[in-house]
Structure formats: structure tokens, C-alpha cells
Amino acid sequence: GNLPLVLVAPHGGREAIPGIGIRQGNGVPQFKTGRDHNTAELAEAIALKLGEMSGAKPFLVIARFDRKYIDANRPSSEAYEAVEAQPYYTAFHSAVDEACKQIRQVWGRGLLLDIHGQAAEANVIFRGTRHGKSVTDLVRRFGRQALTGPHSVLGQLALRGYKILP
Prior knowledge:
- The chain has 6 helices and 5 strands, in the order βαβααββαααβ.
- The protein is of the alpha/beta class and 166 residues long.
- Strand 1 (5-9), helix 1 (39-54) and strand 2 (59-62) form a beta-alpha-beta unit.
- It starts with a strand and ends with a strand.
- The strands form 2 sheets. It has a 3-stranded parallel beta sheet, sandwiched between helices.
- The chain has helices spanning 39-54, 76-79, 86-107, 133-142, 145-148, 153-159, and strands spanning 5-9, 59-62, 111-114, 124-126, 163-165.
């Protein structure tokens, strides 16, 4: 990438991991194995469109493995059950870490968009917040306008007719 933006699709993969069984989720809160349909394709389309619009491209990290084998958005202790899955998990997170490191080196800071799907409400973009931490940090550093203002990413989406919650 050559923009201070990382697009991550942790649940869009469809590929099986040879020799690894499907996770059972014993003791894992809010356990899910379903993939977020079309999020890999959405992240790729966003990256392509940004490239067309700006002549630059974001960093793009997509988990190609199916979520039923590894949930890349969980800590390693909850993400997989077969020790053989660990290298796949590590490779995904290393790619995200490397993209963030490059962005910090070149721009000082950037934006990571973790692309997920949802079926709760059609035509709505739910703003995820890492349990409130990312929003708190963003508002503290740049003010409320960075989160919801007309020049923010979500503000621009709202101006184009998308419903943003919360």
C-alpha cells in the first residue's frame, strides 16, 4: 500500500486449512464459525475504487482461511483449537502489524478499517469501536468531527445516503 489506510477482512475467507478440524468453541464467548459473506470481495472493491480515485492504494489484509478453522479477530487462545492453525493466525496478524508499522514510519499514524458483515439490519453500516477504545482515542486526539463530521470517513458515507449506527 501507499496510503495511510489498512483494510482488513478477517472473516471473509472460504478456504479450508488441510488437516485442521472445525473449531468447537468450548468456553469461547459469543462463538461463531460463519463467515462474513462478501467481506473479502468488499475490501478488494474498496481498495480498487480508492486506487482509481486517488492513484494510490491502501494496505489490504484478507484472511483467506474460513472462520470455522480460525477466527482471526480473537486472541490466539480463543482463535483456533488445532496447534497446526497457529502459523496461519500468526501470518495474518503479522501482515496487519507490518502494514501498521509501515504507516507509522511514513505518515506517523493512519486508519485501520476492519471490514465485517452483519445481517441484523439491511443497508446499515455499524460503527465498530474495539469496545469503545478506538472511538475514545479518535475523539480525544481530533475531536468529535473526526468521528461524525462531514469530512470524516463515516460522515462521507452518511452524506452519500448510508445509514451509520450507532
